[in-house]
Amino acid sequence: MAKILIVDDSPSDIRFMTEALKGTAHDCVTLTDSKGVEAAVESERPQLALLDVVMPERNGYETLRALKKLPAAEGMKVVFVSSKGAETDVKWGMRQGAVDYLIKPYTPEQLLSLIARHV
């Protein structure tokens, strides 16, 4: 069982992910903006973060760079979940330190398979 942090500015995307994870042993923590990510990581200590790329205030890439400076995030894996699916987007996301990149739209099976690979 893993604790998974989901950060997406779209409530429907968060709902889709949490519904897909229902019935698994995973515990989900959700945020609808990137402002509270550091505090959530420090208090919840998730093993995995599913991070949207396109968000107001601070995008997913900037959020991941901020998390890399956070001792509480050490060992936490980050997967970008985004509609930005061009090869350059995926390569850039991986260069920022993500372990994987899931392109929207995706199926619950794709999400669960990806999570199984990383936790």
Automatic annotation (TrEMBL):
One GO-annotated biological process of the protein: phosphorelay signal transduction system
Keywords of the record: Phosphoprotein
Record protein name field: Twitching motility protein PilH
Coiled coil (residue ranges): none
Domain Response regulatory: 3-119
Keyword Phosphoprotein on entry: yes
Keyword Repeat belongs to the record: no
Modified residue annotations for 4-aspartylphosphate: D52
